[in-house]
From TrEMBL:
The chain crosses the membrane at residues 42-60, 72-97, 251-272, 284-306, 627-650. This is P-type ATPase A domain-containing protein. The keyword ATP-binding applies. It comes from the Eukaryota. Belongs to the cation transport ATPase (P-type) (TC 3.A.3) family. Type IB subfamily. Keywords: ATP-binding, Magnesium, Membrane, Metal-binding, Nucleotide-binding, Translocase, Transmembrane, Transmembrane helix. The keyword rRNA-binding does not apply. It is found in: Membrane. Residues 141-231 form the P-type ATPase A domain. It is a multi-pass membrane protein.
């Protein structure tokens, strides 16, 4: 039975029981006096089993398990009230408690991500195409077989038709379609997918037919990660919730002891009767009121705001690895961004290639006799493309993409050595050279610092750095240096800021009031070019992965508060792990970065960063409000009950009303957050003004001429 049907059936039983209890309470005012008592007993006899049986079974089960919780307290209070002759009050207590519990379950279910709904968006099987001799699909005569989606292998080709869901993360091989990923990332606008575009698993094909190439298995695909992370987030409780869970049981035992003490000691200390009289409420009755009023129902649901906020973020395409991430985000006062692929598009554009050292330049000859034929630029591009073939690094992709379709010398790589975060060294064969024949060439490609570190002398290193500084293209571009047999060529690339980044940085600085900085491995001029474009005033450049890690630790220690690291590459993983909160762009992030990150942004932009911070601050504020509301309701209900001012049914009403208030307050976490109360008030006034204008417009249109 699903939750909706369960809640519906229990609500019907509670409503029936409540109606019978109300009928019993109304008997003295509606029927002749001689028939009041028999009729009341009949109504109570019919109503009590509807709510009493389940309450008794729950209490017995909890006591047998060594637990004393809210269910035990309510059952004890209700049945003690019945034995004292107040069956009507005891029945109303159980009915109202059950209805409040149903409302609590409803609000809790609304706050949670419906993992079942996400799983229903995922197909059980995929139409995998048969391949020809070249391991490509035969598009002229499509033949396919249906296989379970968990068995789909990377490199397979799948047919996706109208109305179907893309089973795993893929790249469009042929065809085009209109797809929606609203249920994955919150992106409402349908997207046009064409050849070469990447599509996340779970995307639904609204119109069109396409053949896609599988990039990831089911376990590694977007939808699978969403389901897995959502289930983990619901299990990972924040610190306050874990503390309240432990505190609740001990607190319930204290309430029972205090209630027994009031019932036993009240007559001796305050001259109360044991059993209620027409003049004074008895100590047992007062003790039952305390047991009901002081039970920790409202406190237990105070952390509901965490689950609600996690759900709200997920609907925006922001996955949090548990409610504890919200506490961490709210404590952070610094945000550090990686540059390439995070603040920028990551898709570098090849701008120019410039020989700077060891080449022939015009009629002037350098200290090296030979030069490349037909030109230095052509040979350098061929060598760089050969070394970067198959790479995923943005610089390498830009070089390879630029070389496609050009008539370049034939170059093959004999040996290869990679230095993470620095560059690579290779031995090349069959390159056309100034001597006219093929020979082995020693080549290195990477940052300026990496190339100069390989120089034989400090003088040569100094001359290369001077040549870079004197480049005719200036220092604003992204640079990579290529050295082939001591001839150095500078490769210029352009990295453009992402659309909307300037607004994100402005929001973080002006509204979130956080310190914003850039941590990048790129050289100083390129880093500052992007920083100036997006409004960042603090930049740390030319950082290796270990340098980023040191900066994250140092800045966190110096500031005395938390630090958020936003990145996406494997070289960001150490810094992401060391930061208070690590945030990655899941669409392009490496598996290592995703594994160590705390927040995954499913949309391919960083607008989720200020939203996450604002949501975290909103949530922590709501949780504090919930605790204050819960304690206030407990005090307002408990103290008058012990003093004898409140009947038991009104005590129950105040107690359960407090629980419902906490639930309703928690549901506010589904709303988009704001940075201040003033902004909330402004938004409210704007909405009221819009509705008033719409009402006037409709009134004028409906008025008779």
């Amino acid at each position: 039975m699903d939750l909706a049907n369960y809640l519906r059936e229990h609500l019907q039983l509670c409503c029936c029981a409540t109606a019978l209890f109300i009928a019993a309470a109304a008997c003295p005012y509606l029927v002749p006096k001689p028939t009041v008592k028999p009729l009341q007993n009949s109504f109570l006899f019919l109503a009590f089993p509807l709510v009493g049986v389940s309450a008794a079974l729950d209490a017995i089960t909890d006591i047998a398990g060594g637990k004393v919780n809210i269910h035990v307290l309510m059952a004890l209070a209700a049945f003690a009230s019945v034995f004292m002759g107040n069956a009507l009050e005891g029945g109303l207590l159980l009915a109202m408690f059950n209805m409040a519990h149903i409302a609590e379950e409803f609000f809790t279910s609304r706050s949670m991500i419906d993992v079942k709904e996400l799983k229903e968006n995922y197909p059980d099987s995929a139409l995998v195409l048969d391949l020809d001799d070249d391991n490509l699909p035969n598009v002229s005569d499509l033949s396919y077989r249906s296989i379970p989606v968990h068995d789909v292998e990377v490199g397979s080709y799948i047919l996706v038709t109208t109305g179907e869901a893309v089973p795993v993360d893929c790249e469009v091989f042929q065809g085009s379609a209109t797809i929606t990923i609203e249920h994955l990332t919150g992106e409402i606008k349908p997207l046009e997918a064409k050849a070469g575009d990447r599509i996340p698993g779970g995307a639904r094909n609204l119109d069109g037919r396409m053949i896609v190439k599988v990039l990831k298995t089911w376990k590694e695909s977007t939808l699978s990660r969403i389901v897995q992370l959502t289930e983990e987030a619901q299990l990972n409780k924040p610190k306050l919730q874990r503390w309240l869970d432990d505190f609740g049981e001990r607190y319930s035992k204290v309430v029972v002891v205090l209630s027994v003490a009031i019932a036993v000691l009240g007559p001796f200390l305050f001259k109360w009767p044991f059993i209620s009289t027409a003049v004074c409420r008895g100590s047992i009755y007062r003790a039952l009121g305390l047991m009901v009023a002081a039970s920790p129902c409202a406190l237990a649901v105070a952390p509901l705001a965490y689950a609600t906020a996690v759900s709200s973020c997920a609907r925006k395409g922001i996955l949090l690895k548990g409610g504890q991430v919200l506490d961490a985000l709210a404590s952070c006062h610094t945000v550090a961004f990686d540059k390439t692929g995070t603040l920028t598009t990551g898709g570098l554009m090849f701008k120019a290639i410039e020989p700077i050292y060891g080449h022939l330049t015009g009629i002037k000859k350098t200290n090296f006799a030979s030069c490349c034929i037909p030109s230095c630029e052509v040979e350098a591009l061929a060598v760089a493309a050969a070394m970067e073939k198959g790479t995923t690094h943005p610089i390498g992709r830009a070089v390879v993409d630029h070389s496609i379709g050009k008539d370049l010398p034939s170059v093959s790589v004999e040996s290869f050595e990679y230095f993470p975060g620095k560059g690579l060294i290779a031995t090349l064969n069959s390159a056309e050279s100034g001597t006219g024949g093929g020979k082995l060439l020693k080549a290195s490609l990477g940052s300026i610092e990496f190339i100069t570190s390989l120089c034989k002398s400090e003088d040569e290193s100094r001359k290369i750095r001077a040549a870079v500084s004197a480049s005719s293209y200036g220092t604003d571009f992204v640079h990579a240096a290529l050295s082939v047999d001591e001839k150095v060529t500078l490769i210029h690339l352009e990295d453009r800021p992402r659309p909307g980044v300037l607004d994100v940085i402005s929001e973080l600085k002006d509204h979130a009031k956080v310190r914003v900085m850039m941590l990048t491995g790129d050289h100083k001029s390129s880093a500052w070019r992007v920083a100036n474009a997006v409004g960042i005033n603090e930049v740390y450049s030319s950082l290796k992965p270990e340098d980023k890690l040191k900066h994250v630790k140092k800045i966190s220690g110096d500031m005395g508060g938390g630090l958020i690291m936003v990145g996406e590459g494997i070289n960001d993983a150490p810094a992401l792990a060391a930061a208070t909160v690590g945030i990655v762009l899941a669409h392009r992030a490496s598996a290592t970065a995703i594994a160590v990150a705390d927040v995954l942004l499913l949309q391919d932009n960083i607008s989720g960063v200020p939203f996450s911070i604002a949501k975290a601050r909103q949530t922590t504020s709501l949780v504090k409000q919930n605790v204050a509301l819960a304690l206030t309701c407990i005090i307002l209900a408990a103290l008058p009950s012990v003093l004898g001012f409140l009947p038991l049914w009104l005590t129950v009403l105040l107690h359960e009303g407090g629980t419902l208030l906490v639930c309703l307050n928690s549901i506010r976490a589904l709303n988009d957050p704001s940075w201040s109360w003033g902004q909330d008030l402004w938004n409210l006034m704007y909405k009221l003004k819009s509705k008033l204008a719409l009402f006037r417009h409709n009134t004028i249109q409906s008025a008779p001429l």
